[in-house]
Specification:
Layout (H helix, E strand, L loop, with lengths): L2 E5 L3 E5 L7 E8 L2 E8 L2 E7 L2 H18 L4
Antiparallel strand pairs: 1-2, 2-3, 3-4, 4-5
Length: about 70
């Protein structure tokens, strides 16, 4: 089971409890920009979206598909 987090500065997301340096997060850059970030064993991507649902959907799809192959989340 992943550990959820929420922070006013860092945004919100989840950290994998069984794969080091593996997480996803989404944070607001402005009213019209949401940054989605994921890392799997320290390597990942980040992308900016115009809406929160788009950002969260993209980051969850990416990190879960890749991390589960390695035993994460």
């Amino acid at each position: 089971m992943p550990t959820r987090f929420e922070d006013a500065v860092e945004g919100f997301g989840e950290m994998s409890n069984n794969l080091a340096d593996t997480f996803w997060k989404v944070k607001s850059l402005s009213i019209y920009e949401w940054q989605a970030v994921y890392r799997i064993k320290g390597i990942g991507e980040e992308k900016v979206f115009p809406s929160l649902p788009e950002a969260e959907r993209w980051v969850r799809e990416k990190v879960y598909a890749k991390a589960q192959e390695l035993g994460g989340f």
